[in-house]
Design goal:
Blueprint lengths: L1 H31 L10 H14 L1 H34 L1 H15 L7 H8 L3 H25 L3 H9 L4 H36 L7 H10 L3 H29 L1 H8 L1
Helix pairs in contact: 2-10, 3-4, 3-6, 3-8, 3-9, 4-6, 5-6, 6-8, 7-8, 8-9, 8-10, 9-10
């Protein structure tokens, strides 16, 4: 009984052993002089500096600025890409096929490489950063929406029509439920890419945000602040990913019901 109990705990903690070992090694190496603490701060120093930033509220201000830009740009991309994807994938598949090479080419253009062009059009301000997020996230959402709509089983649509369902019923009862899981996959992909692009944009043209915090720390050689910002970016990125998965499981409930049935 005791052995089984210990085995269960070990299985639950197995994924954390590598992280714990890495943190221990990270703490020991600068402490005993294996690496220069001036360039690689130990975790205790980073945690202490993070606590100071949280007490003053500065860290939360930068996190809120980055999140606000991410969600605004992502929202604009979603309300553009999802309806357009339904139109091209469902009603005009020929147009979607015709435009696919062009859209694929545009989707391969890194948003950060367009930063100078965005500055010419929008200036240095919030609009240019939101534009980068918009450009980064719209393409994966658009591509997955088109593919999701086109891969809805035709037999389901024909069955609904044979029972007298109209276009609205077919859309809300067949096409939307069938394509929603794949669309959320595209939104998650867009969120991850957009967040990374935002951090890069904040390093150049911002006065607040986690990207600005990284840039400011590197320019002033405040190494603990640099690591605090880097760890915050990683944790916030993971949090966004988990949030999108939670949102999908909350809204797309029929996906789980189908799996259970």
């Amino acid at each position: 009984m005791a052995k089984n109990w210990l085995t269960d705990i070990n299985d639950k903690l197995l994924n954390w052993y590598g992280i714990v070992g890495f943190l221990i090694l990270w703490q020991i190496a600068p402490t005993i002089g294996l690496i220069d603490p001036q360039f690689i701060s130990p975790p205790t120093t980073i945690i202490a500096y993070a606590w100071t930033l949280m007490e003053t509220g500065d860290l939360f201000i930068h996190m809120a600025a980055s999140l606000q830009r991410t969600f605004l740009g992502l929202f604009l991309a979603v309300i553009t890409a999802v309806p357009l994807g339904f139109i091209l994938g469902g009603w005009f598949p020929g147009v979607a096929k015709f435009l696919r090479p062009l859209m694929s080419l545009l989707g391969q253009i890194n948003a950060f490489s367009l930063f100078p062009i965005f500055i010419l059009f929008f200036g240095i301000g919030e609009v240019v950063k939101i534009s980068i997020i918009y450009w980064s996230s719209i393409w994966p959402i658009l591509f997955t929406t088109i593919a999701a709509v086109q891969h809805v089983e035709p037999i389901f649509i024909k069955s609904a029509r044979s029972m007298g369902a109209g276009r609205g019923t077919i859309f809300f009862k067949v096409i939307l439920p069938g394509s929603a899981p794949a669309i959320f996959t595209g939104i998650r992909m867009g969120t991850n890419v957009a967040f990374l692009m935002l951090i890069a944009a904040e390093m150049i043209g911002a006065s607040a945000g986690l990207g600005w915090l990284v840039h400011n720390a590197s320019m002033n050689n405040v190494i603990p602040r640099l690591y605090v910002a880097t760890v915050s970016i990683a944790l916030l990125g993971m949090g966004l990913n988990y949030f999108m998965r939670w949102l999908e499981s909350t809204l797309v409930t029929w996906k789980e019901e189908t799996a259970v049935e």
